[in-house]
Amino acid sequence: MVRVGRRNAESGRAATATRAEVIYTGAEHGRALGPSVPHLAIPAVVEEAAPASLLPGEHTAARKVRFAIVNGCTIASLALGLTAIFLAMHGDVRLAAACLVACVAFDGLDGALARKLGVSSPFGAQMDSLADMCSFGLAAPVVVYASLAHSVPTPAAAVACVLVAACAAIRLARFNVSPKDGKFFCGVPTTMVAAVLAVSVLIGLPLPGLALLGGVALLAFAMVSSFPYAKLARLVRLPAWLWLLPIVGALVDARLTFVMVVVTYLLSGPVLWMRERRTA
What we know:
With 280 residues, the chain is mostly helical. Helix content is 65%, strand content 6%. The chain has helices at 19-23, 61-89, 93-117, 122-148, 154-177, 190-203, 209-223, 232-236, 240-252, 254-279, and strands at 2-7, 14-17, 184-186, 228-230. A hairpin with a 6-residue loop joins β1 (2-7) and β2 (14-17). α2 (61-89) runs parallel beside α4 and α3 (93-117) packs antiparallel against α6 (190-203). The protein is globular.
């Protein structure tokens, strides 16, 4: 029993009401007799929403098979990333780097297949982002740490690799919530950073440990920068003679040519950014 703060006109005594009378008057009235009591409130029944469909459009057998193939490529990238971690833990650093290169290939394949086969979906985009975080945000720093552990102080290598993981997470989260630009990336994509790190370990760049450490940190900050970087489709349309330069350079000194190509691409972002500001 609860006491209602309403006086009876004849007796002047406080009237009382039951729990149901205080909160509700009944279905036919739909209004309270008195002030509501929070701990006596009857919770509303909330129906659970039906799960969203993973594959938009028709659910034919052929489309389901194509959908499974595309997501199989994503899972393959995820599995290769974990394999790279296991190999790095056992000291097989170059083989781990080769697994990362295969991760990059499968990551590009799943998106291309999804568009080609007409099974692109929000689920696939989220799967791809999670696999990228595992393969490129976690596996790549682990492989780099294993390769740097004997050439630089261990705490410095750990800090640089944690920086790569943190910037990769920020980069992927920002990409998921930002409007897409068909011409440029905002910052260097995680896939490209992982590819550069993997190839660097694979070919064994003849650079001092501190220089390699600085390069790792620079790539990490490049991921979260606001500089515009050209997508592969725009790079393919460059004049043929520009493509001949790295090919000839690779025949002379592949390692030096690789470093020059990476540095040129990293510098292209600030150059494009400054040109946009001048024309704005």
